[in-house]
Amino acid sequence: MADFEWMADPAFRNEMEAEVVRAAKALGITQYESAIVDALQSYLATNVTRRLTEEILKSEREQRSKVDALHSVDILVEEAARQALAKKRSNITERDLREAYAAKFCQVWPFC
Length: 112
Known about the structure:
Blueprint: H1 10-26, E1 31-32, H2 35-45, H3 48-57, H4 66-86, E2 91-92, H5 94-103
Helix pairs in contact: 1-2, 1-4, 4-5
């Protein structure tokens, strides 16, 4: 059975922040509101028990992992960066992330 303790590990927040920086930089954005990482942490904490139960019921081969969660961070930040760039800004705001979250809702495990 997969180990999901990483979700509660404070170090995972640092990994999410590193992924935010990497994904934003890949699109030429060097600034972001620190509240973005807090929002991601909040999305993760919402209904975490239900999401973990769903994953545990899957076979080990089908279970998603921390790698999948970090890939979801990448998807959300890329979408938020595109929105910022479309608004001719060089920084990502928490509002951009919220709009990206709404646009990608339930496509970004474990954040939905």
